[in-house]
Design brief:
244 residues, alpha/beta, Rossmann fold, seven-stranded parallel β-sheet, 7 helices, 7 strands, 45% helix, globular
C-alpha cells in the first residue's frame, strides 16, 4: 500500500503499544485517528507527537465495547477525512483472573473490550474502506491465544478469538481488504511484574531477550506498507517464546 496521505485508525493509541504503532504509521506518511477511552491527556500528547512528523492527527474518545461509540467513531473519521484506509485493533484490557476469581462481570467486560469491540470496529470500518477501494486491517492478538498461560483465562480466550476472527474476516473481506494479526510475546510486561519473573521469561525466549513495543509497531508497518500479498496471517513477534 502506498501510505502517503492515507488515513489510519489505531484503537488504544494514546499509550503503550498502541502509541508506538500510531507513531510508526505516521512516520510512513499516514494521517492518524488516535482513539482513546480514558487516557485523554496521553492521547493529546500522541497527537502532538504525530503532528510534529508533518501529518494530520486527531484524538477521538470512545468505549469500543459499545456499538453506539463505535458507530460514532467511524462517523467522526468519515466527517474529518472522508476515508479510512487502515484499521489497527490494538485496544485491550489484561485482567489477572485466577480460576476461583472469575466472575460474570470480568468475563463480559474482557470479551466485550477485547473481542466484540475489535469485531464491530472492523465491521463498521470495512464499509468506509470499501467506499474508497479497500484497505488493511491488523488485529493485535497475543501469543497466549496460541498457547494459553494460567490466571488470565478470559483474556487468553479473547485473544484466541482474535486469531480466529482474523482468519475468518480475511475470507469475508477479500479481495478489497487484507486482514492480518500480530501476536506479540513478551514486549511490554505489566508495570507491577516482578524482576525475577521477567528474567525467567527472558531466558525462556530463544533469542534470550525481551522485545519492545517498536517490534510490534514495525510488524504492523510491514503488513500495512511493505506487502500487499499477505492476508489471514498471524505474525508471531515473541523472540521464539512460543516454541521455546
Amino acid at each position: 500500500m502506498q501510505t502517503n496521505g492515507k488515513v489510519a485508525l489505531v484503537s488504544g493509541s494514546g499509550v503503550r503499544v498502541g502509541k508506538r504503532i500510531a507513531l510508526a504509521l505516521a512516520a510512513q506518511g499516514m494521517h492518524l485517528a488516535v482513539h482513546y477511552h480514558r487516557s485523554a491527556g496521553p492521547a493529546e500528547e500522541t497527537v502532538t507527537e504525530i503532528r510534529a512528523l508533518g501529518v494530520e492527527a486527531e484524538a477521538f474518545q470512545g468505549d469500543l465495547s459499545r456499538l453506539e461509540d463505535i458507530r460514532g467513531l467511524i462517523a467522526a473519521i468519515d466527517e474529518r477525512w472522508g476515508r479510512l484506509d487502515v484499521l489497527v485493533n490494538s485496544a485491550a484490557i489484561f485482567p489477572r483472573t485466577p480460576w476461583d476469581e472469575i466472575d460474570e462481570a470480568t468475563w463480559d467486560r474482557t470479551l466485550s473490550v477485547n473481542l466484540k469491540g475489535p469485531f464491530f470496529t472492523a465491521w463498521h470500518a470495512a464499509g468506509l474502506m470499501r467506499r474508497n477501494g479497500g484497505g488493511k486491517i491488523v488485529n493485535i492478538a497475543d501469543w497466549a491465544g496460541l498457547r494459553p498461560y494460567r490466571h488470565y483465562l478470559p483474556y487468553v480466550i479473547s485473544k484466541g478469538g482474535i486469531i480466529t476472527m482474523t482468519k475468518a474476516m480475511a475470507k469475508e473481506l477479500a479481495p478489497e481488504i487484507a486482514v492480518n494479526a500480530v501476536a506479540p510475546g513478551p514486549v511490554m510486561l505489566p508495570e507491577d511484574f516482578e524482576p525475577a519473573a521477567a528474567e525467567r521469561i527472558r531466558k525462556a525466549t530463544l533469542l534470550q531477550q525481551l522485545g519492545s513495543p517498536d517490534d510490534v509497531a514495525q510488524s504492523v508497518v510491514y503488513l500495512v506498507a511493505m506487502t500487499d500479498f499477505v492476508t489471514g496471517h498471524v505474525l508471531v513477534v515473541d523472540g521464539g517464546r512460543l516454541i521455546g
